[in-house]
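Morning run. Coffee first, then this:
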Amino acid sequence: MFARSASVPRLIAAASLAAAAVLGAPALGAAQDTTGTGTGTGGIGITLNQVEHGADVIKGADFNAFSADECADASNVLIAFNVMNSPSVLKYDVWRGGTGSQCQLSNSRTEQNATCVELGVNPDRSSTDGSFALTLADLGVCGSDSDFTLYVFATNESTTTGDVSADKYGSITLRVDTTPPAAPAFSSTTLSGDASVNLSWGAAGETEVRYRLYIDTAPTPGGGDGTCTSAKLTTGQTGPTEAEADAAGLDFIETSTDVKGRTLSLDERGLNLPVGGQAAVYLSAVDKIGNASVISAPACVTRVETQGFCDLYEAQNPGKRCTTDCTVAAPGGAGGPMSALYLVGLAAFGLLLRRRRSA
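And here it is:
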């Protein structure tokens, strides 16, 4: 867990971040690749090391953007940055601007311009290369979905004045994306089978989307029309996480990323559904940022007993019984047994005739 001061970013020794991904420092003034969503400028290298939410590390070098969940708890989301190729100074002056804001220029930092916002000066900086941490609340970027650029000025001054030379600043561009994908919908909302049923739905409209299914095996039945609902979920609510689903007593399935529509075979017996039992299944989509859509209207799965050959024979021939080896009366006979193998051969012969007729 990265500690921080109450008022300004607290710098952390580089040794404590030995596992961080370190990129080579660029030439002074050249653009540099970062682990954020854009590129940085300046001679100081700034990279995002990791993002923590509470006690959990939730993002590292695969960072894409800050999500709605993270913005909703911004004061508990901590972002650790690496600093490389910095001159030996005592302080870092940290600023935030929009894309292309050029906060290294003094006219972008005036009160009249208000293009750039100062986040704080840290008085404890001493080593050449190190790191610092800010909470998402410190950044103040969760009001809208957009890119933003964080600037770090290496200075011995309490407040940066004038233009900052290329060898004394670095920047990194990051993104806020709190927009969830569209809610997916089941192709059919009433299904039945003995062993398994195939649930299908269309794509959510975005690339790199995962799908979450929530299953309640003790739903509230509908009006005898094969429908059912769950008292634990409401259509239109944001899809819960796996931990939230587990706490509610729901079965949870998450698919792999897929840009196409999906089909999933649901094992009714694996859910321990009795014959006549039902399960309400809800669906949501999750994008690569971690934003979850609202959940769909439920699909209701009912387990029914499938009739075998003997069931169908006895239903169609009242008074006649299919024996244990599934023998039936031979055609034209007086009830004598005929092996089911004969029926298989007869079916094959009929198939052959159909093929010849269609040729």
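Residues 1-38, 324-359 have pLDDT under 50 and may be disordered. Good start to the day.
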